[in-house]
Structure formats: structure tokens, C-alpha cells
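W.,

You were right to be curious about this one. When I first looked at the sequence I had no strong expectations either way, so I just let the prediction run and decided to look at it fresh. Below is the sequence, 138 residues in total, followed by the output.
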Amino acid sequence: MRWELTEHHVTTQLELASELPLVVGHRGQLQEVIVNLVHNAIEAMVTIRDGRRALRVSTGQDSGTVTISIEDSGPGIDPEKLASIFDAFVTTKPNGMGLGLAICRMIVDRHNGQLSASLAHPHGAVFRIALPQMSLPR
């Protein structure tokens, strides 16, 4: 997605933890979730005109899960719509179908994980994926 980020003048910051535990999952499906979230972030930041288009992707681990956070500097999510953005056919885009986030949540749910969204401070949105780390046989 480097071309799309560059084309839209988005600066990226990667904070990738080293030596994370493994997760069990379908590589293509999980990549699709991340690509969709990054693409949504780019689209959200199109309205930002003052040059502060920034995307931060970070990874870590927390209580038996591997986490991936995608934070943008866009206008954020209307707090009244925050609870329903993962519902099918709910969209904030003029030409959106409202399926992208619903599919992302379904994929993460099928991997026994969680996908959540929150408001970033002072502006923007944060999407967090938490996947259970793989249990190694003893």
C-alpha cells in the first residue's frame, strides 16, 4: 500500500514489536483485514487539508493476545456511530456499502479474536485487533 499512502501524502510510523508469539490464522484473511483498515484510514484522512495526515501501525502483546493497532489522524468517528460501525450496511462514506468493517470483524471473530474501534486523541480513530497467541504443546 506504499503507493497509495504516498499518493495521499500520508506519513507512516511503524512501531512493530520484535519476537511476538505466533498466532493461528489464515494469512490472506488477516492481511485483508489490515489492508481494509489502512485503506479506510487513508480515505478518512482525505478531508484533512493541513498536512497532518499520519498513520501509525503498532504491534504488541497483552494478556495472551497479539495486538495490532492502526491509528489515523483523520476526523475521527462520530461517537454516536461508534457502537454500530461494525454492523453490516452501516457506512459513513457517500458511496460506501457498509460491508468492509462488518467483514473485518467477522474474519477476526472467526480467528477467536476481537476487533474494536475508539477515538484517538486529539483527533482520528484507532482500530485494534487482538488475536489469541498460539499455545505451544508442553
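Here's what jumped out at me. Strands lie at 11-15, 54-62, 65-72, 114-119, 125-132. And, maybe more interesting for your project: Residues 57 and 85 are 20 Å apart (CA to CA).

Coffee later to discuss?

I.
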